[in-house]
Structures are given as structure tokens and as C-alpha cells.
Amino acid sequence: MSAPTATVGGVNRPTPTEALAELVATGRSRPPAELRVLLAEIWPELHAPLRNYDSAVLVELFRRAGFVSDGPPQPDGDLLVYRGEPADPASPGIAWSTDEAVATDYARRYSTAGQTRLLQATAPPMAVLARFAAEYEVVVQPDLLTDIVNLGGFPHFVWPPAGR
Predict the structure, then answer these.
(1) pLDDT by residue (tens digit) across 18-32?
(2) Judging by beta carbons within 10 Å of its beta carbon (0-12, 13-18, 19+), is residue 146 exposed, middle or buried?
(3) How much is the pTM?
């Protein structure tokens, strides 16, 4: 069964998930400028791409494209970034935010699946692969982040509570 497509103006277009799958499959053969345009268009529309792809695959795709943005500038200094995520990953993901409230909201929402954590880190310019206006998102190469601090998190939220 194929993934759904979106119909825009009577024309079938791939969903963001389908478009990312195509970029992952063909990214090495595409010119960097084309990758930048396509990633800037589809990335803000994606939901949880790390469910389908290893972060190294996505980092490689962004590295091939060069800095990607839908408006925010490439940083010339360190960025303070935040990420809300499940507490069990061995390493943090690639999608962060410069807004702590956005990351806190992600940590809170993930708590329905288990314990979460809210991380803060410093992203030097070489770690920043992309910036997007929505949610003040910053796509990073996680192994280049420094000063990673766990600011806390949320316990697993279960409803209804036990005993009801």
C-alpha cells in the first residue's frame, strides 16, 4: 500500500514523508542547491522523521545540501538550543529549538509515551545544519553540540490513573 498523496490544484503531489523518502534515496545524485530548496519546503511539514530514518542519514542529507533555511539566518556564533524528547534515547535527536517553551511542550507531549527529558545545549555554527521559522527550529549534528544539560522532564503520564 502506498502512502497518501496530497492533491493541490488538481495535481497529486507527494506528502512531505514521501518527498523525504525520495530525497533520502536520491540525495547523493541531486545538486546541493536543489536539495536546499526541497528540504526548506518539506522539513517544516514533517512529523517525527527519526521514526523512519537514522539521524546519521538525515545529517548526511543536510550536510550535502549545505545550510538550509526558510528565513532565519545562518548563525555566526553559538546558539543556545533546547530539545524535549523521550528520556531513553542514547543520543539526542537532530531537531532542536531556540525557544525553551517549544521544547518543553514537546517533552510534555511525549510524556504520554513515557518519561521525558528537556535538554539544553550549545550549538556552535558548524553544528547548525538548518534553521526554520516554525517553532524556532534548528537542525543540528548532535555529536557537535557542547555543554548538554538535562533541565528535567516529565514523568510518564497515564490516564486514567491506576485504581480508577
Answers:
(1) 999 999 999 889 999
(2) exposed
(3) 0.88
